[in-house]
Every structure is written in structure tokens, then in C-alpha cells.
Amino acid sequence: MKVDFPGLVREELPSGNFRYRVRPEGNPKRKIKIHCQPGDDDFQRQYLAARRGEKPEPLRQASDYAKPKSIGWLVNSYLEYLAKRVEAGTTSAKTLKKKKNLLARLLKRPDRVMLIPQEKLIEMQDEMSATPAQADAFIAAIGVMYDWAAKRRYLSQNPAHGIEKIYIKGSGSTPWKATDVKAFFAKHKPGTKPHVAMSVLLWTGCRIEDLTILGRRHECILDGIEAIRFTPCKKGSTEVTIPMLPPLKDATRSMKVEGITYVLGRGGKPFASGDSMSAMFKRWCVDAGLPHLSAHGVRKGLAELLAELGCSQYEIMAILGHSEAKTSEIYTRRVERWKLALTAMDKVNLSHAWV
After folding, report:
1. Structural domain contains residue 25
2. What is the pLDDT of residues 198-237, one digit of tens each?
3. Which of 82, 148, 74 is nearest to 107 (CA)?
4. Do 213 and 249 lie in a common domain?
């Protein structure tokens, strides 16, 4: 069956699949097999070669060059699988980038066996002990890759299972206080990028990566009230709709250069990623004499403030876009515990007065 391209023939196989062959120009009796179909990245190269009467070689990937069933073959096969998921929109490009960075250590000796002994993985984890969170992320990435391989029967066991974490999670980033926000705004005046960035973080409760997308296109009118409606970048987040407070509107209208997003990078374009936005915001914090603070702490500080003001965990969920109540409960529970402790101490003092 002919399709759009001259000489291109699609043939159905007994299996129900299709293959594509091309008749060379000037030789209609001959058919040359190509290894892709219309729409594929390599289609034009293979099609034009076949039209000239040449047999095209299939486009090869890194896994094609690696030693079969080696660790190099496995890592590249897994990353190529993730790349296809990114193209399909089922995996984020950020996830693929992180996996590449974490698994790159395994490609230093790509010809080694696919199944790394558990004691060797622990040794590699120990070598990264100076950055324990990264070390644990490395082991976790290997574990996910081996699970993927096991489902495809490339191997029968996962040596990453059972390896204990070495990173002890602390209390996280430091929450911003009112005095910190004042110090930041004292350094970064209205009309500057830092001022707009802080205003958006503070008055929307968004995450740092959301600054790469938020702009006037997310503004709307609901019940006669100006509002902002957006879906946070974090996977699994629910849509957030909040009133647009005057300080936020004033800040976003103070910029001389306006673009698709409230906060613009070089050339008036949005920041390329949440990581680049986060690094820039950290520089602004240092400039304001606040090196111990970060963008994430703004959101955390807002959550604690909302809890202290008496907002329920569901109200905090609505403002911050939490998809699960247990996330917002972290802040309300801490405030409720303090209030209960005060009540209990009052009762103790009262009973002591009777003695």
C-alpha cells in the first residue's frame, strides 16, 4: 500500500505489524527495506537513501554500541526507555536529567557485568558519604533501574534492595520570618526581578519552579474578584485558585519589561528550569544578607503563618496546592500541640493553687 511519499510502500506482516519498503527512483521493481516509518526522526535519511538505491543502516543508539548484557548496555537501555517516555509526555525531562546524572557513575566502566554485587554498591555509596543525600539518591536510582530490568527478565534479582540509607533528614529549609522578608525587600526594591519573585512566592504560596511558568495568563476574575488560577509544576498537584492581593498586583505591574512570565531571565525570556531559578534566588538572598535562607523557606514560612493564624489544614491545602491533608497537617499539628500544651500548663497551675 502506497502512502504519501513517492515509492514508499507499507506492507502488513502475518503478525499484524507493518514494515516499510521503498522503490528506488527509476527502478520500480526493486524494494529496499527501511527501519522506521513516517514521522520518525530518522525517516527522511533512510527514505532518501533508499530512493537513491542505497540500503540504509538503522539509526543506532548508545545501547547498540555497548557490550551486550553489560552495565553500560543496561544503563543506556534504561535511559533510552525514559527518553521515549519523555517524548510521550509520561515522564518529565527533569526526571530523565536527574537519572542521567546519578547513573553516570556506572558508565565509567561500561563493559563490566550488568549485575553489580550488593557489597560493591555499598562501597560506592560509602565513597559518596560526603554528600549523603546524593549517595542515597544514587542507590535509589539503581534500585529503580534494576526493578525495570527485572520486569523485562534481563536479570532475576535486585542487589540495591535492602541497602540502608545514610542520610538523616533534618528539619528542612529555614522558614522565613517577617523581619527576613522586610530585609529582603529593603535590599531589592519594587521594579526589580528579586522583588517580583519574592512577591509571587509570598502572596501565592507557589514553589520555586512555578516561577518559571506563572504570568498574566494565569490571572482571571471569579465572582468579581481578581484571582490567579494555575496548576503547580510538581507532579500530582491540584489546581490552585487564590485571590490576587494588592501587594502582588503592584509588584507584578512595577516591572519595566514584561513577558510571558512575571519573573524573566536573560533576554526577557522565562527561566529555563526550577534549578536555575532557585540558584538565582539564592544569590538574591545572599545579596540581602540572608545566606541561610532559600526560596523553599518562603513557602514553609507561609504555611506556618497560616497555621498560627488559625487556618485549618484544608484551608492551607487550598492555598498551597497540597494534594494530601497529611502534608498540611504537619503545620497545623505543631500549632495545635503548642496550644494544647499551654492549656495543660494552665490546668497544672490551677491545681497547684489548691495545694
Report:
1. yes
2. 999 988 888 899 999 999 999 999 889 898 898 888 877 7
3. 74
4. yes
pLDDT band at 308 (very low <50, low <70, confident <90, very high): low
| Same-domain pairing of 277 and 318 | yes
130: in domain: yes
Task: For cell 540558584, name the residue.
Answer: 279
Backbone phi and psi for residue 42, each to the nearest 5 degrees, phi listed first: -95, 5
Whole-number pLDDT of residue 325: 52
Question: What digits encode the pLDDT tens for the residues 124-134?
Answer: 999 998 889 89
In a domain, 202, yes or no: yes
> Over 321-334, what HEC string results?
CCCCHHHHHHHHHH
SS3 annotation, 213-260: CCCHHHEEEECCEEEEEECCCCCCCCCEEEECCHHHHHHHCCCCCCCC
Local confidence band at 345 (pLDDT 50, 70, 90 cut-offs): low
Distances, alpha carbon 285 to alpha carbons 175, 178, 272, 296, in Å: 13, 14, 20, 12
Structurally, the chain folds into a number of domains equal to: 3
Rounded Cα gap, residues 354 and 45, in angstroms: 94
DSSP state of 14: T
